[in-house]
Amino acid sequence: MNPLNQQARERLSTLLDGFALQDEVWFSNWVDGAPCPGEGETITLVDPATDEALLDYRDAGPALVERAVAAASRAQQAWMALTASERGRRMNAAVRGLEGQEEALAQLESVVAGKPIRDCRGEVGKVREMFEYYAGWCDKQHGEVIPVPTSHLNYVRHVPYGVVGQITPWNAPMFTCAWQLAPAIAAGNGVVLKPSELTPFTSVVIARLLEQGGLPKGLVNIVNGLGPSTGAALTGSEGISKLVFVGSPHSGRLIAEAGARRLVPSVLELGGKSANIVFADARLDAAVAGAQAAIFAAAGQSCVAGSRLLVQREAFAEVTERLARAAAGIEVGLPGDEATRMGPLQNARQYAHVTRMIEDAVAAGARVIAGGSRPAGLPEEAKGYFLAPTVLVDVTPEMEIAREEVFGPVLVAMPFDDEAEAVRLANATRFGLAGAVWTQDPARAHRVAGQLRAGTVWINGYKAISVMSPFGGFGDSGFGRSSGLDGLREYTLPQSVWVETASEASVAMGYGNGVG
After folding, report:
1. Taking the model in full, what pTM does it have?
2. Residue 2 confidence (pLDDT) above 80
3. Which end of the chain is more exposed for a tag (fewer CB within 10 A), N or C?
4. What does the pLDDT read at residue 338?
């Protein structure tokens, strides 16, 4: 460990004591039930809040990935040798391994990901919820009997892929770790998961705590490292039977292509450019509050962020003025501060991308009515990637900022005149992840929702997500689903079994009847 940021060093030391872990776990991987140092180049983590080096660790590398795949394969066979009911009991027991560690997990996520501590505490609760939900599915994955027109008994059962490879992003590493692990192991698979190299450690801790709680050694393996080395080794491994990726469309295409070369299927949960539609008859207090949460929560670093606000023209001025005032009042500050509502962007590259898009939009004619630059009044040590909540108007649909994902606290507001134009503007994107409709007209609400090309649509609300409901998108937002029963089914294959029940088997091609 080579931390250069003394304040962060002290926080990490406190967390280390709370987890009762050895130092080595913080710059390692979790493979076959033990921490394993990486074997590749050195990666330096940077504190998003202070722009100072936090600590160094080594890229896992291809050899360690193969060890992890082999461990997952062995553990998966032992896992499937258990009854389905026993697997459910062990999943429930495993998640209890997190008990007493919730605050330490939240603090670790806050330090490394730069997220407000209040948000991280909520996400720890979601981790438990995901495992409890899918534990209940372990003994309820029923097959079916098909009434085939022969003398056979034909039944279908759902079988696991074997070992799946998962890659998760930096915006919500703890949440997406559990989001992917729980259905995969409930379906009977072993897992090798690679978090973003920018946010590696909460996934390691979760895997360790789950094993302490009762999961078999090696069923869940975490490999930390860079995409071109560790990521490429994972997607190219012959022992991986399915790939699951959460991240950008560009990287998603590379993952899908790598799988396709080996005829390995994938689930892609990618970006979004979600439209938040507000009709003039909506309850504007609720709509304004919802629009804030839709884009400024998590500093806009959310795939479902409501980054396009479409407001009926007669309400446009009032809604945007109220939003601008509200944005100016959002408490932006250090992630560990209990009062902070919005923290920094996670990394320098993302900060440069977001600020460049704002500058280009202004050059193209857009007007900033809130934010647009570094917020005033930050603590002296907050030298990291902070951007004030930003609202842009005078935006046209042709502008890059209206078409491409920003992934930051930047809202573009555009007016529309009628329902047809609202739907047209909402669907004028390559993305299709989420959207919302605000109106007091129930018929209009359902009518518009039914026309939106989006995997999730909210009516008079935003960002309600549950592990019980399917989540995913269309187009550049990816394919496949990540939660609910649909998410569980992504991790199994249907196997058709034919049992001959006739006293004399009827076999095709004349065999079995004294011919041949």
Report:
1. 0.93
2. no
3. C
4. 95
How far apart, in whole angstroms, are the C-alpha atoms of residue 384 and residue 338?
A: 18
Mean pLDDT of 37-62: 93
Q: Which CATH number fits the domain that encloses residue 137?
A: 3.40.605.10
Q: Domain of 94?
A: 7-270+480-495
pLDDT of residue 28: 82
Alpha carbon distances (Å) from 187 to 158, 488, 492, 493: 8, 6, 6, 10
Q: Are residues 247 and 298 in the same domain?
A: no
pLDDT of residue 50: 94
pLDDT at residue number 513? 45
* Stretch (H or E) spanning 190: strand 190-194
* Residue 269 annotated among the catalytic residues of the structure: yes
Rounded distance between C-alpha atoms, residue 169 and residue 246, angstroms:
6
Q: CA-to-CA distance for 105 and 126, rounded, in angstroms?
A: 12
- Cα angle 4, 33, 234; round to 5: 75
Q: Residue 501 domain-assigned?
A: no
Q: What's the number of CA atoms in the CB half-sphere (13 Å) around residue 72?
A: 35
**Residues 199 and 220 grouped into a single domain:** yes
pLDDT digits (tens, 9 = 90+) for 438-462: 999 999 999 999 999 999 999 999 9
Dihedral sign (CA 366, 367, 369, 373):
positive
Percent of the chain with pLDDT strictly greater than 90: 91
22 falls in which pLDDT band (50, 70, 90)? very low
Q: Which of 109, 269, 405, 490 is catalytic?
A: 269
Q: Are residues 350 and 418 in the same domain?
A: yes
Do residues 399 and 364 touch, judged by C-beta distance below 8 A? yes
Asked whether 24 and 36 are in contact (CB, 8 A), the reply is no
Identify the CA nearest to 453 among candidates 415, 480, 426.
426
